């Protein structure tokens, strides 16, 4: 089983449309995993039939128990995330200030919980989202929804990736295809860690070039084999050439060019992958990219 | 005044709109500062082409263990919520890339064997692009934790200026760190299923944080009113629409300022600014 991650550095370059196209090429031979857990979109094309849903429990959240709080302020002094606030109201008999914890700023480190002299801070486990085992017309899919303003997206990415891998191994499928998230930080690192190959989908713009160099730096650092393809290449052919030159100088194989076409959004509106919507020139472009992925695996 | 430009989905036009809005305001002699909080992939500098006058490293505090004092009691390991410390026999090991810098281990160690040292996670650069103040953060490649660097960028906000904060995509911690404590959030979307799905998530996040917001529909298509319908159903305000136009995409691809390349778009930025001011006043 081979694990392929589709990433981009810059957002909005077409990762999800290309992942969905790969899903249609590999129909019934791959598990699909959507690791862009804080803005997941792959399900809009693959229309998964959810078989099982699970809570994603991760970390804890601090809550001050007002009855026990004496207003000493130790928690506020120790918190490095500015998550403890002094409220306007006063405690019993107007005798002491009252503190509360802003759940959005709290990183769940537990320092306030441990050092509160009155043991007045509770630390319940937090449900940070949900994840799903599903079936699609192209094969099994694992996906998730991070809770609103929740932490730990890296851990959820790891969970989705590992569950996808288990299914691929159990069902003896050839590929695990992962739709990654933009950026180079925690969720991206989590999606790349065990990959056999990372496909970098970029676009021929000054931002695309800049961000490709950074994400390519990350794959190199993590020692993951990478490939680069350019989407919407004809928006700026010179910039596409510059990306190809970069890929040569960085010794990252170039996986091809995909043209700019309304087919991308039109297929999306019909909830179809591009090959299902229109088996024309754009599909041919993407198929060549997929063939290049296979050759480099 | 602090205005954040955000979106759930990447590539909807956050950087284009925030740099051009800053540039438009500077052209009207309004004191303005652009702060790029997409520290993983900062792009604003490619358009504003600032002259950088200051570069400062950004750090997070991570523990170092004095092995001569450590007895291997493991209290620090128990306290750490991020698995950044592990005990192997009687030795405690530090996994600095997992550390959130909370400082708990240093406080709890009964032997005072733990001190903190600063680990560099990236840097903050600041300068000027014409009359526009400019700041961005650049996360070191391989570093996972962007929020502390985002907080360092935001320390450079200018109290007497309009601060335009270009947020990263998504809805999780880096976005929250960027938009927290702003007066108004502009959510950028595009009228596609992916754009609207992620706009829905961004709206939920924004409502949870409790900051007023409005929507800009970018790449608006005359023959498609999905985004208008979406906003209307949720009673969400549309600040302005920017038409879908290949010439905008081409100007962007070359790093040009859109309101220079296509001057008639200035009107849209004027309208956007009036709409933001109106909302902030409320």
What is the gist of this entry?
The complex is a heterodimer of chains A (297) and B (282). By secondary structure, chain A is of the alpha/beta class. Chain A has helices at residues 15-25, 42-46, 74-78, 111-115, 153-170, 186-192, 206-221, 237-249, 263-269, 274-277, 281-296; strands at 2-7, 30-34, 49-60, 63-64, 84-90, 97-101, 121-122, 125-136, 139-146, 175-179, 197-202, 226-231, 254-258.
CATH architecture of the largest domain in chain B: 3-Layer(aba) Sandwich
> What structural category characterises the helix and strand content of chain A?
alpha/beta
**Any low-confidence stretches of chain A, pLDDT <50, length ≥5?**
none
Per CATH, the superfamily of the largest domain in chain A is P-loop containing nucleotide triphosphate hydrolases
Describe the overall structure.
- The complex is a heterodimer of chains A (297) and B (282).
- Chain A is of the alpha/beta class and 297 residues long.
- Chain A has two domains: 2-58 and 129-296, P-loop containing nucleotide triphosphate hydrolases (Rossmann fold); 62-123, Alpha-Beta Plaits.
- Chain A is 36% helix and 27% strand.
- Chain A has helices at residues 15-25, 42-46, 74-78, 111-115, 153-170, 186-192, 206-221, 237-249, 263-269, 274-277, 281-296; strands at 2-7, 30-34, 49-60, 63-64, 84-90, 97-101, 121-122, 125-136, 139-146, 175-179, 197-202, 226-231, 254-258.
- In chain A, the strands form three sheets. A nine-stranded mixed beta sheet of chain A has the order 3-8-9-2-10-1-11-12-13, sandwiched between helices. Chain A has a two-stranded antiparallel sheet with strand order 4-7.
- In chain A, helix 1 packs across helix 11 (281-296) and helix 5 (153-170) packs parallel to helix 6.
- The longest helix of chain A has 18 residues, at 153-170.
- With 282 residues, chain B is an alpha/beta fold.
- Chain B folds into two domains: 2-58 and 122-281, Rossmann fold; 67-112, Alpha-Beta Plaits, CATH 3.30.70.
- Chain B contains eleven helices and eleven strands.
- Chain B has helices at 14-27, 44-48, 75-79, 104-108, 147-154, 173-179, 193-209, 226-233, 246-253, 258-261, 266-281, and strands at 2-6, 32-36, 51-65, 85-88, 91-94, 114-129, 132-139, 162-166, 184-189, 213-220, 238-243.
- A nine-stranded mixed beta sheet of chain B has the order 3-6-7-2-8-1-9-10-11, sandwiched between helices.
- In chain B, a hairpin with a 2-residue loop joins strand 4 and strand 5.
- The longest helix of chain B has 17 residues, at 193-209.
- Chain B starts with a strand and ends with a helix.
- The mean pLDDT of chain B is 96.
